[in-house]
Amino acid sequence: MSAGAGTVRPEVAFIGDLACPWCHVGFRRFLALRGSMALRLRWHPFMVAPHLPPTGVPLERYLERRYGSLARAAGELRRIEAAGAADGARFAFWRIRRQPGTLAAHALLLAIDDEAATVAMAGRLFEAFFHEGSDIGDPAILRREAEDLGIAWPAALDPVPVRAAHETALALGVEGVPAFIAGGRTLIAGAQPVEVLRGLVEVACYPGRASPQGRQAS
């Protein structure tokens, strides 16, 4: 289902973190859906590890604490790699040295007053971190990536809206990311397959017009 000329595109808020691998997968899947449904994207920050210092922590230490052991972490990362491959979400975890704090990266995205530029910047930061191992917690690297895309560097990276958005997501019941808010009210959790996501978004954004497949999606 696509919007015709002059039709207002429904907005979907993407709730995610730039250092969350499932968010990388979910973002790629949403972009595939956005191309066919003419959706508007609004970036909504969420920080999986809000208490990390700006310089981050060694990746192995982070993974061990998150998953309980490096062996369990390795199994989960292999599963994520396999899930993302079909959607163009590339991973090279062996290149990553530190798990970064993402406050500054989120602040950069919120400072961009253009949907296309926001989408391009978010996609670039996911790729820079997960495939190239870049430290996206470093403002110097963020500035370089923005300038490479022709995006003006903001006068300041304001952390206040980022923290407020994170708290809003928690208040909405978001416990893990990615998640989506479609139609201004419907919360969709998880990196859903594109066709499942399509059905859920149709139900939320086009009440009464969704296909039977969409109405059955859960």
Write the layout of secondary structure elements.
Layout: E1 11-16, H1 21-37, E2 40-45, E3 57-58, H2 59-67, H3 70-85, E4 98-99, H4 103-111, H5 115-130, H6 139-148, H7 159-171, E5 179-182, E6 186-189, H8 194-205, H9 212-216
Features:
single chain; 218 residues; alpha+beta; two-stranded antiparallel sheet; 9 helices; 49% helix; disordered C terminus
Structure description:
The protein is α+β, with helices and mostly antiparallel strands and 218 residues long. The longest helix is centred in the N-terminal third of the chain and has 17 residues, at 21-37. It has 9 helices and 6 strands, in the order βαββααβααααββαα. The chain has helices at residues 21-37, 59-67, 70-85, 103-111, 115-130, 139-148, 159-171, 194-205, 212-216, and strands at residues 11-16, 40-45, 57-58, 98-99, 179-182, 186-189. The strands form 2 sheets. Strands 2-1-5-6 form a 4-stranded mixed beta sheet. Strands 3-4 form a two-stranded antiparallel ribbon. 49% of the residues lie in helices and 11% in strands. Helix 1 runs parallel beside helix 3.
Question: Short summary of the structure?
Answer:
With 218 residues, the protein is α+β, with helices and mostly antiparallel strands. It has helices spanning 21-37, 59-67, 70-85, 103-111, 115-130, 139-148, 159-171, 194-205, 212-216; strands at 11-16, 40-45, 57-58, 98-99, 179-182, 186-189. The protein has a four-stranded mixed β-sheet with strand order 2-1-5-6.
Structural class: alpha+beta
- Low-confidence region ranges: 1-6, 210-218
Rg over alpha carbons: 17 Å
Shape: globular
Count the beta strands. Answer: 6
